[in-house]
Design a protein that fits this description.
The complex is a heterodimer of chains A (172) and B (173). In chain A, 60% of the residues lie in helices and 0% in strands. Chain A has 172 residues and is mainly alpha-helical. The longest helix of chain A has 27 residues. Helix content of chain B is 39%, strand content 23%. Classes of the chains: A mainly alpha (172), B alpha/beta (173). Chains A and B meet through helix 3 and helix 4 of A and helix 2 of B.
Chain lengths: 172, 173
């Protein structure tokens, strides 16, 4: 057996041993819902399940997740659509039980305003700071980086001393 | 101007505090919207007595812990010892056997101990859905009026009991 293969197997074994401790246990998936949806309902079903969060594997929608809870929630959405409930009613059914966290796009309200407005607030603050900075710079007189007169004087004296140093013909 | 240096420094300190607090926050603990609301209605059979119905009304009249557990749940085994201790102290715990079979649950309780005054069976997870359960174990603390006052996600232990639940139970009784 190669070293890589053995290492891989050992890692797999460790993962299998740790899995029950790390993952909160879940049951097998329940049977699929037999109720039939119309084309329109099917479309709403597809968009709904991709807007709802699976609470077990939190970075997945219930449409993407393999977790049994996600299957339960999909069945619930399916059954409620078949029963003629609106999207708003279905979302409310879920937020009443699991809170706004179940929505990938939480509503704008007292508890979530900072979540929605935060980035724009930060942008606003940055703009104000940048504007004030720019204005402060414009009002400042541009500092003199090079004193031209002094430079010319320096060059002049350099030249002079150079010409003095240069070997000259013997004095007449 | 001092403010030019103080403001960014203050902002940095603020961010550090925010992030430090965030490190102690477990994103898997989703706050339940049911806190402060009456326990959701249900009518389910009892383990060993499937003909009997147990409803949310049966939970009223005294403080009760409602513990969602299952034989397939590894973390529940960890919790069971502590629940046995609580039951021995006279705390009433009602178990909800969540998405499980009666045979598996009976065998599991025989092996790990049965701290429950009653065990409600919820084989489809219907009550679990109404109670906003998304894993096991989860434990709800109900006051005498049948209102949910606290929800514990994951195993219950002595620290949680002393700091969070015991004060609520005293107030509720």
């Amino acid at each position: 057996m190669s070293v890589g293969l053995r290492r891989g197997l050992r890692l797999l074994l460790a993962m299998l041993l740790l899995a029950p401790a790390v993952v909160r246990a879940q049951d097998r998936a329940p049977p699929p819902d037999p109720a039939h949806l119309t084309a329109d309902e099917q479309q709403r079903y597809d968009s709904l399940i991709h807007e709802l969060r699976c609470l077990v594997c939190q970075n997945e929608t219930i449409g993407d997740s393999q977790a049994p809870l996600a299957a339960d929630l999909r069945n619930q959405v399916h059954a409620q659509l078949a029963a003629g409930r609106s999207d708003v009613e279905i979302k409310r059914y879920l937020t009443d039980r699991y809170g706004d966290f179940v929505l990938y796009r939480p509503p704008f309200k007292a508890k979530t305003w900072l979540l929605w407005a935060g980035p724009f607030l930060v942008l606003l603050i940055a703009l104000v700071v940048a504007l004030r900075y720019a204005r402060a710079r414009r009002h400042h007189e541009t500092p003199v980086l090079v004193d031209n007169e002094a430079l010319l004087r320096l060059i002049g004296s350099e030249r002079q001393s150079e010409s003095e140093d240069r070997p000259q013909g013997p004095p007449a | 101007m001092r403010l030019r240096y103080l403001l960014p420094a203050a902002a940095l300190v603020g961010l550090v505090v925010l992030f430090a607090a965030g490190l102690h926050h477990d994103p898997h603990e989703v706050p339940s919207p049911l806190i402060g609301k009456p326990a959701p209605a249900f009518s389910l059979g009892l383990l060993g007595e499937p003909a009997k119905r147990y409803t949310a009304d049966d939970l009223k009249g005294r403080p009760v812990l409602v513990n969602f557990f299952a034989s397939w749940c590894a973390a529940c085994e960890v919790e069971q010892d502590y629940l046995m201790q609580l039951a021995a102290q006279g705390v009433e715990i009602v178990g909800v056997d969540y998405k499980d079979s009666d045979e598996d649950a009976s065998r599991w309780l025989a092996r790990h101990g049965n701290p429950y005054r009653s065990v409600i069976t919820d084989p489809q997870g219907a009550a679990g859905l109404d109670w906003g359960v998304y894993g096991a174990p989860e434990t709800f603390v109900l006051n005498a009026a049948g209102t949910i006052v606290y929800k514990q996600i994951g195993p219950l232990d002595d620290a949680v009991w002393r700091t969070r639940i015991a004060p609520l139970m005293e107030r509720g009784s």
